[in-house]
Each structure stands twice: as structure tokens, then as C-alpha cells.
Amino acid sequence: MLKKLIKKASFKGAFFAFVSFVFMFSAGAENCISTALSSPEKVTVKWVYDGDSLLLTDKRKIRIIGIDTPETKHHKQKAQAYGAKAREALRALLKQFNYQVELRYGKERKDKYKRTLAHVYLPDGTNISNWLLEQGFAKTLAFPPNVALAKCYKKSEELAQAQSLKIWRYKSHKVRNAISLPRRINGYVRLKGKVSKIKTSRKSIFMELESHSKSRIRVKIKKRHLKYFEGIDPDKLWNKTIIVTGLLKNKKRKRTVTISYPTQLKVVDQKSAANSERNAKDNAKKRKPTKLEWSIQK
Asked: Which of 33, 129, 160, 172 is the S-S candidate for 136 at Cβ 3.0 to 4.6 Å?
């Protein structure tokens, strides 16, 4: 009986150590904000569904703009790695400010599920999306027309990637070669491949990545989103090596990654790739936290 009590006490101690937070304050750290957003609206959070979805006391459901966090277990949806931890990190963060936040809106205020779309800030100015990205709890999600902070968010994501924080330690989130990607893979991917063919339809441009398989991977850009790709001409990417980030879907024996913003596309310079990787890691070491730092889960 005594052994059971000791074991139980040890487990509780470990659990409380696991969920403990240490918040570090750093003046001058970059925080994502833009004059293109609306004036702040002060609200109170009633419930945290997961790392990117909130319920307000006025009953509005908020989908946080710019990020996607791992899913938590609900209904038939299986929990994903770090889904529950991202939710608990956000709950603990909000608790420090008595669940008071500020909403700033972009060009589109509702999604197809009737949720309110907003960038969410703490009273001290901390951008919650940026904070979750820096900690490695989230990945960027650029969805036009709400892309005012997409490039800023991308920088924070790259810092977490360079340090392999949390979700970025998993193979599924590493850059993989399109030429050897197994057929069974779908969902979120970061793919590297050479553009072997470019096709145009009435509404989209398709870039086919080099592959030994009959089931090749296409990168799709809708023509209505080309206006965001300043300085990138898809027609001139033939025979270039690119890295694309997005959701890979298998439909009618075709594998397609649809991208809608330039943060999802990177043209790789083979000569400087190694130097770029080293620079990213060096920058990550010099990085300053955005005022509030999760200190336990690295």
C-alpha cells in the first residue's frame, strides 16, 4: 500500500512539474502587428477548445487567424501529438491575464463554419499566434485575404523549425523529397522537388514535381491568388527545385498540394542551401522570446 502511495505521489509531482510555466519578459522582441488590421476589440475568453479556437463570454466562436495547431481528441477525431499541450499552454497563458484579450480583424471576418476570424492579442500586446509559433505549438496557415501578418508569422515558424521545437521534431513535419514520397502519405507536408512540367487550366496553374512514380505530385495555385506571388513567376519555375508547404490531398488518383500565398513556396538555390540552413540555426540561437516563454516543453 505504501509503495502505491509513493508511486502516486511521484506521478502527481511529475505532472505538476510538467504543466508548470515560467514566463520570461523581453523588451524589444518582435511581435506581429499591422496597420492593415482593425482597431482592437476587448473581449473575455470563456473556453479554449484547442490551440487555435476559442469561445468568448458573448458566445462567439473565434478561429485564430494565421495558425493551425494539432487537433485535440473530440468526437471521432483522434488526438494529435502536442494537441492537448498546445491547448493547455494557451489556457495557462490566458489565465495570467484573467482571460482578457483583444481581437483585431482582417479583411474577412467569418469562415464557412460561421466562426469569427481574428488575430488575438494579450493586453500587453503579445500576439498569441506569434507566441504559439515561436514555442513550436503551431504551424502557419496563410488563407487569403487574411494574410496581413503571414510573412511575420513565417519568420517565427522558421525559428521554431530551426530548433526542432515540439511539433517540428516529428518526421511528418520535416522537409521530404517528393520524388520518393510514399503513396499513402497525405495531409500536412513540406515537400522538396524539381518542377518537371507546368500546365495551365482556366482557373489554376499546376506545377508537376519530378517523380519515378506514375502518381506524380502537382502543386496548384489558383489564378485568383497569383496577385499575392509578387516576384515569383510560376511559368519560370520549370526545372527549378522548390519547397512547398501545404495539405497534400489524394483525389481521383491525383496527388495535389494547393498553395495560396508565397510563404508556402520557396525556390531552392542549391549552392546556398547549406549556408541558409546554418544561418537559420544561428538566428534561432540568438532569438529573443516574445515576452512570454513556455519553459518546460522543449
From this structure: 160
